[in-house]
Amino acid sequence: MTSVRATNPAQIASMRTAEVVRVRRAPSRLSDVRAHDGDASARAQGPSNTTKPGSAPQLLPGGRLPAVVVNPSNIDDVGTLRTQIIGVCAELGWAPPLWLETTVEDPGGGQASIALAAGADVVLVCGGDGTIRHVAQVLAGSGTALGLVPAGTGNLLARNLAIGLGDPARATRIALSGENRAVDVGRVFIDECAEEQVFLVMAGVGFDAAIMAGAPHELKSRLGPLAYFVSGIRALRGPRASIAFAVDGRIEPPRRVRTVVVGNCGKLLAGLVLMPAARVDDGLLDVVSIGPRDIFGWLAVTARVLTRRCRGHQIVQHWQGRTVIISAEAPQLAQLDGDPVGEVRGLRMRIDPGALLVRV
């Protein structure tokens, strides 16, 4: 394999993609490709064209290629994880995976683009909901399936799709041999930004986003999911804000609330369900506004969440629709699938039904 050096980022990406595609298309070789920090390397092995009875299937030339997008900051032992995934690929007759690690500068989108250019048949994501979101931004509408190997703190998409946690080998088997399920994708414009972003779980403003902003990576690394509880306690005393929104063009009057959450699915941690009617493939966005005044109001909110009631108290109100517009009187913290996106004044959201294939 030729070693190439370049200083222009666009040129580097182009060279990486071209090299990966060249290796993928070679008719008489299997490839183990790793792209990391701008470099790519490949090792080839001679393929076997026969399968012995009772043995693992051997991949024939032109066989299926998996790509693995890994967030190394979420993995305790990347080497062990890679060995597990390569073993499952061999067991199921897939080629050695195209291994792509995320960076702070490129949290998943660039790696997903390389995977598509290489002709990957499925893209596995080893990371949390934020990493999945960046990969899904590229895969949505492509027809290439996404596989989940949950390795984040919340892992809410995996929980809502009943993908088990803590067993990378089992998750890899599902990603390589499971069924494709078409799920909806939420799309959002933030303020006047021209770039449309996506979310698969929930987008929120106010208290919900404050929890995410108050649980940095270091805290999550130490406490795990408990970090969100600690951050939530700290954010309880925040002020209510005047927020107006419209659902499918129906304008709701401004109301003083602590948070507005728009979800594609409704399950939270610990089995709690914030939006009982939400389904990942119903073609609808679910909206909930929460407006407690004090600790007694928060107790009422907790009771509503625990009982999964959608009606009966003005502190917690629910809507469903295909489009949602949120407008805040003053800038509010916002988040997409757990990723803080700073303070915003407005969000314009729509649902893209069945846009993403996920292996289940």
Explain what you see.
The chain has helices at residues 9-25, 78-91, 109-117, 129-139, 156-160, 168-177, 207-213, 217-223, 226-235, 295-307; strands at residues 30-36, 39-45, 66-70, 98-101, 122-127, 145-150, 180-190, 197-199, 202-206, 241-247, 250-257, 259-263, 285-290, 316-321, 323-336, 339-359. The protein is α+β, with helices and mostly antiparallel strands. It has 2 domains: 9-178, Rossmann fold (3-Layer(aba) Sandwich), CATH 3.40.50.10330; 186-354, Tumour Suppressor Smad4. The two termini are 36 Å apart.
Tell me, rounded to a whole number, the average pLDDT: 84
Low-confidence stretches: 1-60
What is the CATH superfamily label of the largest domain? Probable inorganic polyphosphate/atp-NAD kinase, domain 1
Number of domains: 2
**SSE class:** alpha+beta
**Multimerization state:** single chain
- Please tally the β strands and state the result: 16
User: How many distinct helices?
Assistant: 10
Strand percentage: 25-35%
